[in-house]
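step: validate -> pass
step: tokenize input -> pass
step: predict -> running
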Amino acid sequence: MNVVMGFLAAYGWSILGAIITFIIGWWLIKIVLKILVKILEKTKVEQSLVGFLRTLADFMLKMILIITTLSMVGVDMTPFFAILGGLAVAVGLALKDSLGNFAAGVMILFFKPFKVGDFIETSGASGSVMEIQIMTTVLKTADNKHIIIPNGTVVTSVITNYSKEETRRLNMTFGVGYESDMEKVKQLINEIIESDDRILKDPAPQILMSELADSSVNFSVRLWTKAGDYWNVNFDMNEKVFKVFNDNGINIPYPQLDVHVNQA
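step: predict -> pass
step: emit ->
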């Protein structure tokens, strides 16, 4: 009994202070986490990153609180810090690549070079973004294959985002024979363009004689469309130009090879 009374006399106020600190600290952590989540949501951070950052902050703040309260009652935390430091180094070396992918995932979710649904090209692959996970990014290709790319590879590669802007410019080249009526060629292409409502009037389409090639006169056609209409306009323009040129006697040249055989 005397030992207990002596212990309480020596450490009673420290224990009481530690308990009060722990209770108040635990309550403050909840408030801080709520504020953090609201701030992240206002900045429109991805929901998966919000949850991760909340969990990470919760763990770190509670660890700091526990260490603080234990220190208040006289517990020596030096061995704990030494063990924790050693574990951190060991885990860091073992999970070096994983931690790199993890950090890259946080960067992607925070800086948003692309979002779910965007069509991108990166790391030698292209497709629509299906998922942005903490460790990997999942793409779905046009032929319905899933490609899983480590986030570390994504952030160190060039990223082409085809969905970032609402409009895209379609660049096409059409070659005609040198004997063709060039004004008529431009008129026919222009009529095709004007008949397609998917081709934007602003910026204005351009039909330019771009090259006097070996066997053809090449016209560069520059069209602006909404991003979602890009490929359909591309395919339809090729088909329409081919049909209209044939119907109007416009020659579409192609490479030919003349072979001369010498008979001894």
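step: describe -> The chain has three domains: 9-94, 114-161, 167-247.
step: cleanup -> pass
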